[in-house]
Design brief:
With about 240 residues, the chain is of the alpha+beta class. Among the domains are: about 30-55, no CATH class; about 110-235, Glucose Permease (Domain IIA) (Distorted Sandwich), CATH 2.70.70.10. The chain has two helices and 13 strands, in the order H-E-E-E-E-E-E-E-E-E-E-E-E-E-H. The protein has helices at about 1-25, 235, and strands at about 30, 40, 120, 125, 130-135, 140, 145-155, 160-165, 170-180, 190, 195-200, 210-220, 230. The strands form three sheets. Strands 5, 6, 7, 8, 9, 10, 11, 12 and 13 form a nine-stranded antiparallel β-sheet that branches. Strands 1-2 form a two-stranded antiparallel sheet. The protein is rod-shaped, with a radius of gyration of 44 Å. The chain starts with a helix and ends in a 6-residue tail after the last helix.
Length: about 240
């Protein structure tokens, strides 16, 4: 009988000790592999309501689509100017006199290469009223300023010619002896300073041995007639040095 009581007592003590040891064991926390934060005590545990980290579903190495600063690509640059109909503006242009704002109308020619032929005599007692800019046949001719094509005209003396009015219609720029016009060029077309408008030639009464651009500037009257105006010397306007 005594042995039975000792056996039962031993079982009771062992059970209490086992319960004590099990209840005292603290479960190990689970650390998120993504964020390094504790998300619960057990693998299937959820964070307390309202305490879930806002970044727990996102990899911190990736940009946040909601953060506009992540998509900043620098200052917005204005778009390039649209291409004009015909030939595009040519980068190989030569500035003329600083005060006039005009370009030398033949590509590659500098002011030091110009000659003042404005007052030279011509046939039938005429004055030249222009300058001749010598260049090989086919050299691009460029607009000296912004404006529009007022008239495309073929004459006996000037050959293939172009009359350009400036933006406010006070001046006409006259280009003569052209080999041809730039592709797509038409009357009333807006053209830009530096835009290719034609090519040097020897049409009209020019000599094939001396292709050149005959260039003139006319002050227009109130009637704004392309065929008449007061001629002014282009030479100083294009940066030609005084004699």
């Amino acid at each position: 009988m005594r042995g039975l009581l000792l056996f039962l007592l031993g079982c009771l003590v062992g059970a209490n000790a086992t319960y004590f040891l099990m209840s005292d064991r603290s479960p190990e926390p689970v650390v998120s592999a993504t964020t390094g934060t504790v998300t619960g005590q057990y693998p299937d545990a959820l964070p307390p309501a309202g305490n879930k980290p806002s970044h727990i579903e996102r990899n911190e190495a990736e940009p946040d689509p909601a953060d506009s600063t992540q998509h900043d690509t620098g200052p917005i640059l204005p778009p390039p100017l649209p291409a004009m109909r015909g030939s595009a503006p040519n980068s190989a242009t030569t500035p003329a006199a600083a005060g006039s704002g005009l370009l030398i109308p033949v590509q590659g020619v500098t002011a030091s290469q110009l000659s003042d032929t404005f007052t030279d005599a011509r046939s039938a007692g005429r004055s030249h009223d222009a300058i001749d800019i010598m260049a090989p046949t086919g050299t691009p001719v460029i607009a000296v300023a912004d404006g529009h094509v007022e008239k495309l005209f073929t004459s006996k003396l000037g050959g293939l010619t172009l009359y350009q009015f400036n933006r406010d219609g006070t001046l006409a720029y006259y280009y003569a002896h052209l080999q041809r016009y730039a592709d797509g060029l038409s009357e009333q077309q807006v053209i830009r300073r530096g835009q290719v408008i034609g090519y040097v030639g020897y049409s009209g009464n020019a000599s094939p041995e001396g292709p050149h651009l005959h260039f003139a500037i006319f002050v227009l009257g109130p009637e704004k007639q392309w065929w008449q105006g007061e001629a002014i010397n282009p030479y100083p306007q294009l940066g030609g040095a005084p004699h």
